[in-house]
Each structure stands twice: as C-alpha cells, then as structure tokens.
Amino acid sequence: MKKTEKITLAFDVYGTLINTHGVLVLLESMIGEKANVFSNLWREKQLEYSFRKGLMDAYEHFGLCTAQALDYADAFLQTNLSASQKQTLLNQYKILPAFDDVIAGLDNIDKERFNLYAFSNGLYDSVNQLLEQAKISQHFDGVVSVDPLKTFKPNPKVYQYFLDQSNSQAKQTWLISSNNFDVLGALNYGLNSVWVKRSAQQVFDFWSKSPTLTLDDLTDLGSNIIQYTEQS
Fold it and tell me: Which of 122, 186, 192, 232 could potentially form a cystine with 174 if both were Cys, beta carbons 3.0 to 4.6 Å apart?
C-alpha cells in the first residue's frame, strides 16, 4: 500500500461506538432487577425486526423498529410500562453514551492515513444527534445512513451504497463493528473488517468467513490496521 493512499473506515454506530445498554440505569429505576434482561431483549428484537423487514421488502425506519421492539420486550417480560415511560426510554435512546474506549480510539487515529465515516441502519438525523451528544462527531468526515435504500445491513446493496457515498474502493475500506452480521456482510461484499469483541462472552459466528482483525476495543484501532496493511 502506498503511503499516499488513504484508508476508509466505516464505523458501525449502535453497539460499536454507542452503548445501546446505556438505558440500564433508567430501566432499573422503572422495572428493577429485570432491567438487564429487558435491555438485551430490546436490542435483540430491534435487530431481528430490521432483518425481517429487510427480507420482506417491508421497510420501516430503524427508529420504528426500536419502538416496536420496546413494546415486545414490555409485553414478553410483563413489565407493564406506561406510555410515558416508553417515551422516556425512547428519548433516552437518542442520547446514548459512547463506550469508554471510543474517544481515545478516535483520537489515536492518524487522519493523514484514514478517512472516517459513521455508517448506520439509523436515520441520518438520529445518528448525527448521537454522535454530537457523545462529543465524537468532529472525528468523522461524514455520516452514511442506509435509510435512502429502504433496507438494512447486511443487504449487499448497503455496502455498495457506502462505497459510493464515501468515494471509496472495497479493498481500501474497513468496516468496524461489534455486530457479527455487519462484519460478515462487509466481508461478503469484499471489504476488510474489524470485529470489536466488546465482551469475553461474545462468540463470532461459525461461518466460512472470519474478521480481518479482531480487537477487544478501539484504543489502538488505527495502528493495528496500519500494521496489518503493511504486512500484507
């Protein structure tokens, strides 16, 4: 790789940069010891709904998937949240915090070597608000939402759309994500990938493809990618 060639980094947002379990304290104040189970189920259903809507060609935006998943978790766990409590939780979802390693990781990336984009299933305005609230928006050259395509990751179309929007080539682009489905979607389309293993309990899918790199956090992301590319 020539030193003059910049590498494009496509950062997944929910679960990678932004902690979707940042609602736990609020949930605990509402439903007590069920909060952790509720948060996990809410996230699982949010993603499941996006997959199902994408496969059915029945697109509804990610914010609506989030609200519907909240209703499901409430009904399944019989927590009997009021409409006001649900709205409070959805409002909290708009200002979720970044993971502790994110600011240092982004600070450590050499902008002479990399272009940085946020790449998300979320609506453009929602993602921008999250990044600004987390005080990390200044690190990014742009935000790419899949919403104009009316489908979701890991549809192959969204990875080509990202390349088009960022004016990037697949071989020079890295998808950074903690979500297995996103990493595999990017690999399937010919992008490089970093799987951010955010907990020791996470297991990567036993498919024929594996992440280009696996890291525990984002602290040394830039240097690890540079090292890999220089050795390849």
Answer: 192
Paired strand residues for 98: 18
Give whole-number Cα distances, 54 to 19, 138, 164, in Å: 24, 31, 21
Q: Does the structure show a pLDDT above 80 at 2? A: no
What's the CATH number of domain 24-93, 3.60.15.10, 1.10.1610.10, 3.40.640.10, 1.10.150.240? 1.10.150.240
Alpha-carbon 35 to chain mean position: 22
Element (H, E) at 114: strand 114-120
CA angle 150, 154, 156 (to 5 degrees): 80
Cβ 16 vs Cβ 196: under 8 Å = yes
Contact present, 91 and 29 (Cβ < 8 Å): no
Number of Cβ atoms within 10 Å of the Cβ of 4: 7
Query: Has residue 203 got a pLDDT over 90?
Result: yes
Residues of the chain with CATH 1.10.150.240: 24-93
